[in-house]
Each structure stands twice: as C-alpha cells, then as structure tokens.
Amino acid sequence: ETGVTQSPTHLIKTRGQQVTLRCSSQSGHNTVSWYQQALGQGPQFIFQYYREEENGRGNFPPRFSGLQFPNYSSELNVNALELDDSALYLCASSRTSGVNNEQFFGPGTRLTVL
Amino acid sequence: AQSVTQLGSHVSVSEGALVLLRCNYSSSVPPYLFWYVQYPNQGLQLLLKYTTGATLVKGINGFEAEFKKSETSFHLTKPSAHMSDAAEYFCAVSGNSNYQLIWGAGTKLIIKP
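^ inputs. structure came back:
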C-alpha cells in the first residue's frame, strides 16, 4: 500500500509569484486535507476535498485554492505569494470525510518565499 | 473559538523515565482528541485518538492518554522513555465542523541517555 506522497519536496519562489503543490492520496482514500505548518507551530487547516468537491475551509484567503482529481489526488495553488507563506505544506488523506477518521500525512513540501 | 494548548515547547527526560506531555483544550462540545508524532523529515503519524467510550486510550509504541472532561485535558504518557521516542508530538482536537482539526503548537521530546 503506497502512502501519501507530495511533490516537490522543496521549492523557492519570490514574492508575487504563483505556486502549485501536488499530493497523491493513499490507495482507497477519497478525502484530502491540506495544512500549513509555519516554523515552530502546529499545522493550520487550509481546506479539505471530498470526492472532488471542497468540503470545508479554514481561515485562509481566496488566493489559496485547490483541486481534487477523479483519482483523488490533489493540488494546492497559492497566488500572489507573500513572505508569510513560507512554511511546510502538509497533505493528509483519509478513507472518507469526517474528523474522526485517521488522517495519513505526506512528508510535506517546504516552500520558501523570498 | 476552540484552541489547544500544549504546555512546554520542549520536554527533556532521561531514557527509562516517565514521559508526560500535556495537552489542554477549549471546546464547547464534546471533542474528538488526537495525538500525532512527527519524526524529522517524516509525515505526521497518528499515535492514538479518543472519540467515544473508554477515557483511557492506548496507542502505538507504548503511549497512552486519558481524556478528562472536567479538566479539559488529554495528556500523553509513556511509562519508560526510549531513545527512539525523540520526536515532536502534537495534540489536536476536532473543531465545530466535521472536517477541521485544531492543533497545538507541538512539544519536542528530548531523550537523555
């Protein structure tokens, strides 16, 4: 059983640019959640996708957007990058939606905005 | 708004000693509670969770946690620390929605030989 994978592992962008991060969910999982983890902090929920639809969103501006594909992989897009967007971005998949379901995390993408 | 507080950003214990990592939460409704562990350069891994039923929950690697509603706490313990337990530990609680977890800031566990 392949776990959750994320690409790229590291990324450096400049302020104002756009970035796309990718996540492959674990086999059999139809739900993907994205989190932002700033240095020294816990993960902050960005949004969740369930069966290709956004299922819920945290306190992030609209320049954070996402997609989920028919194979349940997912993308996180961030437009107009700001310095504060520098963080580790985590993707987690679960068998279905519902917060009581175990989330399986990928290793993350480290984004640096200069 | 719901919040999770983990007391101590760093906790240091000797190998073989008791591990106690503290987690308190604020919630207006009975929550689901989780402990995750993050090893360097690896993804977060679920240690244990409380949803309903028995308030003492056993997890992987010898860890356990007890849900105490009156104290709004969910502290993580392990009787005897091992060097391999060195990692960062996160407590999380379900939010008002059915999809969002609220996370603590994490506690880095350091094991002294």
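Chain A touches chain B through 27 residues (CB under 8 Å). The CA atoms of residues 41 and 87 of chain A lie 10 Å apart.
thumbs up if we can close this ticket
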